[in-house]
Amino acid sequence: MEHSYIDEFAGSRDSFLHRLDPRTKIITLFTLLLFIILSPANAYKNFFLYAAVIFIQILLCRIPLLKVIKRSLVVIPFVLVAAIFIPFIKEGEVIGSYSLGYFNAELTRQGLLIFWNISIKAYLSTLCLILLIATTRFTELLKGLEKMKFPRVIILILSFMYRYIFVIYDELLKIVRSKEARSVTGFRLSDIKIFSNIIGVLFIKSYERAEAVYLAMLSRGFEGQVNIFTELKFRGRDIFFMAILIITFIIIKFIR
Amino acid sequence: MHIPDGFLTFNVWGAAWLVSAGGISYCLRKTSQVLKDRMVPLMGVISAFVFAAQMVNFPVVGGTSGHLLGGILAAILVGPYVAAVVISVVLLVQCIIFQDGGLTALGANIFNMSIVGTMGGYLVYLGVRKISGKHGPIMPATAIASWFSVVLASLFCSFELVLSEISPLNVVLPAMLSIHMLIGIGEAMITCFVVGFVIKVRPDLIYGK
C-alpha cells in the first residue's frame, strides 16, 4: 500500500486550502459540521447554501469532484439500512399509499421529513470530513490536533499507527499473495480457517514488530516520552479564512 | 454499524461522547499502569494490525461480504483495556479518513463497539470462563463472547436510534438484531480460529494466560 492511499488528495495537490494551518481547517469544518447537524429539518435553503459553501471549497482546492462524490457515497448503505422504512412507518399525514400484495405501505409527510433530515445531514457532514482530509495531510492533522490539546497519548498512538499501517498492510498482501500462489484463488466459505490463520500470522508478526520497535526506541534513548517536533503558526490568511467562513455560516443560519 | 452524522440528537451524541471519553481515558490510565512505556508503540502497531485485518473482506451468504470487528480478538490477545483503546483509535481513523461513521456520532460509535462491544464482550468471556472453571477451554468462551460483542453493540446502536426518534423500537430492534446475530456467527468463527492459531503457535501472547 502506498502513502497516497491515505493522503490521496492532500499529498499530491496544492492550493490555498492545502496551505492553511491545519487548525484553521479543523475549526472551520467542525463548526460547519455543527451548523449542519443543528439545523432544523425544514431549513431547505440553509442546507442548499451550506452545500454550496462546501462545493465552492472543493472546486477551489482542485480536488476531482467526481472522486469526492464517489467517496461520499460511503454513507449511503447505513442510511438505507437504518432509515429506508421510516417514511412508511412514521405515523402522520398520509401523502401516498402503495399496496404491495399483503403489505400496505403508507407514505407520510412526517416520515419523509425525518428521512430527508438524516440523509442530508449525514451526506453534508461526510462532505465536510472529505474536504478536511483531502486538504490536510494526516501528519499535519495530528500536529494541529496536538496543538489544540487533543490527548497526547492518542496522538502518539495515531502517529505510530499511521507509520505502521503501510508496513503491516504490505505484510498482509504478501501473505495473501503467497497463499493465492499456492492454491486456487478466491475465498470460499470453507476457506474461513485459512483466512483466520492469515490474520493469526499477521498478529504475531505485528506483535513481534511492536517489540522490535520498542527495543529500537530504547536503544536510542527512549525514556517513556516521545517529543513531537511541531511548529505551527496562525498567519493572516488563516484568520481571514476562518473569519470569512464563520461569518458566512452565521449569515446562512439566519436566512429563512 | 458505523452511525453517520445527523442520525442522533444532540442529547444522545453529546452524552455518548462524554461516556466514551471517560471510558477511554480510564482504559488509557489502566494501560499505562500495565504496559508502562511500551504502551505507545504496542498500541500503535496493534491498531495498525486491527485496521489491516478489517480490510480483508470475507464472503457472507448471498454475495455480500463482511469484515471482522476484532474487539474480542484484540481483547483476548492484548487485554480488554488495550483492546478498547485500539478499537477506538481504529474507529477514529475510519471516521476521519474513510468517512465511516460521523464525527459527532463517533462518541456513540466508540461507545457501542469499543466500550460495550469490547469491554462488555470481555466480561462475557470472563463470565463463561468462570462458569467453566478457571482452566476451562478458551474456545467456547471466545465464541460466545465474540457473538455477544457484535450483538450487544448492535443492541446499543438500536437504542441510540430509538432515543433519537429515528425509528420505533419494534422496527429497528428486530432488524438490527437479526442481521447482527448472523454477522456475530462469522465473527465468532474467525475469532475462534485466530485465537486457536495463536494458542498453537505463540501461546505466550494470549492475555492473562
Explain the overall architecture.
The complex is a heterodimer of chains A (256) and B (209). Chain A has eleven helices and two strands. With 256 residues, chain A is mainly alpha-helical. The N and C termini of chain A lie far apart (48 Å). Chain B is an all-alpha fold and 209 residues long. Chain B has helices spanning 10-35, 39-55, 71-78, 80-98, 106-131, 138-163, 169-201, and strands at residues 58-59, 65-66. Helix content of chain B is 74%, strand content 2%. A two-stranded antiparallel ribbon of chain B has the order 1-2. In chain B, α4 (80-98) packs antiparallel against α5. Classes of the chains: A mainly alpha (256), B mainly alpha (209).
Give the SSE layout.
The complex is a heterodimer of chains A (256) and B (209).
Chain A: H1 16-19, H2 22-37, H3 44-60, H4 65-72, H5 76-83, H6 86-89, E1 94-100, E2 103-108, H7 109-135, H8 138-147, H9 152-182, H10 192-219, H11 236-254
Antiparallel strand pairs in A: 1-2
Helix pairs in contact in A: 2-7, 2-11, 3-7, 4-7, 8-9, 9-10
Chain B: H1 10-35, H2 39-55, E1 58-59, E2 65-66, H3 71-78, H4 80-98, H5 106-131, H6 138-163, H7 169-201
Antiparallel strand pairs in B: 1-2
Strands in their spatial order, largest beta sheet of chain B: 1-2
pLDDT under 50 segments of chain A (min length 5)?
none
Give the largest interface. Answer: A-B, 81 and 68 residues
Largest beta-sheet details of chain B? 2 strands, antiparallel
> What oligomeric state best describes the polypeptide chains here?
heterodimer
Query: In percent terms, what proportion of residues of chain A is strand?
Result: 5-15%
Keywords summarizing the entry:
heterodimer; A: 256 residues; mainly alpha; two-stranded antiparallel sheet; B: 209 residues; two-stranded antiparallel ribbon; 2% strand
Question: Nutshell version of this structure?
Answer:
The complex is a heterodimer of chains A (256) and B (209). By secondary structure, chain A is mainly α.
